[in-house]
């Protein structure tokens, strides 16, 4: 029995955490410290905070992976959720490992916008597209993150001739198409953008650089 108890403890999953980007939400965990814990199978449950019964996540029941997609299960974005994971090995089940409380609206990370750049001889037109959530409208198109938050686009220009690290903010607002004028011909410019949430004073990562020579 003692050996079983030791095994129970040593295969118990560690660091059970929610990761979420644009409401695409996955649960991640680490294996227990036993040498053989790499061969364990995992079982995932979830619930809304305050509910008494846990729900099994069928797709993550007896899996060897250490990631479980809970996007669909956490779609009520204002609700706080919990999840928990247990491991099984050689017929022995560990105790449950509990995640921290997770509220999608507060905790999801917002991704950068998509940026398209079109240049003429002295100006650059920047087209911006907000990141999309996994949730769909009735017609089937994905709902952009701007539906859920008051988000602004921030657009920065980098003059490679002067300094490749120095970003200058040239626009902040909600317009999806902006024009940057009075630029120098023959100079290489790069544009990066990010989403900014004034209410939580929170910014996304920068988009990848879109570069052009006028």
Give a brief description.
The chain has helices at 2-10, 104-107; strands at residues 14-21, 24-30, 41-48, 55-63, 67-69, 81-89, 92-93, 97-98, 114-119, 124-129, 132-136, 142-144, 152-159, 168-173, 177-180, 188-197, 202-203, 210-213. The chain is mainly beta and 214 residues long.
Which key phrases capture this entry?
214 residues; Immunoglobulin-like; 2 domains; 5-stranded antiparallel beta sheet; 2 helices; 18 strands; elongated; Type-II_Cytokine-TF_Rcpt; secreted; receptor; signal; Ig-like_fold
CATH topology of the largest domain: Immunoglobulin-like
What is the C-alpha radius of gyration, as a whole number of Å?
23 Å
Q: What portion of residues belong to β-strands? A: over 45%
Largest sheet: 5 strands, antiparallel
Mean pLDDT: 94
Encode the helix/strand succession as letters.
HEEEEEEEEHEEEEEEEEEE
Going by CATH, the architecture of the largest domain would be Sandwich
* Silhouette: elongated
Number of domains: 2
Number of strands: 18
> What is the terminal separation in angstroms?
75 Å
Q: What structural category characterises the helix and strand content?
A: mainly beta
Helical percent range?
under 10%
Low-confidence stretches: none
CATH class of the largest domain: Mainly Beta
Tally of contiguous helical segments:
2
CATH superfamily of the largest domain: Immunoglobulins
């Amino acid at each position: 029995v003692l050996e079983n108890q030791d095994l129970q403890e040593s295969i118990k999953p560690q660091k059970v955490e929610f990761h979420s980007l644009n409401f695409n939400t996955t649960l991640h965990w680490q294996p227990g410290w036993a040498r053989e814990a790499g061969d364990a199978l995992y079982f995932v449950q979830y619930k809304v905070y305050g509910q008494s019964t846990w729900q099994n996540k069928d797709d993550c029941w007896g899996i060897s992976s250490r990631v479980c997609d809970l996007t669909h299960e956490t779609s009520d974005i204002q609700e706080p959720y919990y999840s928990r994971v247990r491991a099984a090995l050689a017929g022995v089940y560990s105790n449950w490992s509990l995640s921290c409380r997770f509220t999608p609206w507060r905790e999801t990370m917002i991704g950068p916008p998509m940026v398209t750049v079109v240049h003429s001889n002295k100006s650059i037109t920047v087209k911006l597209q907000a990141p999309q959530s996994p949730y769909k409208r009735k017609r089937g198109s994905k709902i952009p993150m701007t539906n859920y938050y008051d988000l602004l686009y921030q657009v920065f220009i980098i003059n490679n001739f002067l300094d490749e690290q120095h970003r200058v903010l040239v626009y902040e607002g909600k317009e999806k198409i902006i024009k940057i004028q009075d630029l120098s011909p023959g100079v290489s410019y790069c544009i990066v953008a990010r989403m900014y949430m004034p209410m939580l004073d929170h910014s996304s990562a920068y988009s990848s650089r879109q570069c052009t020579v006028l």
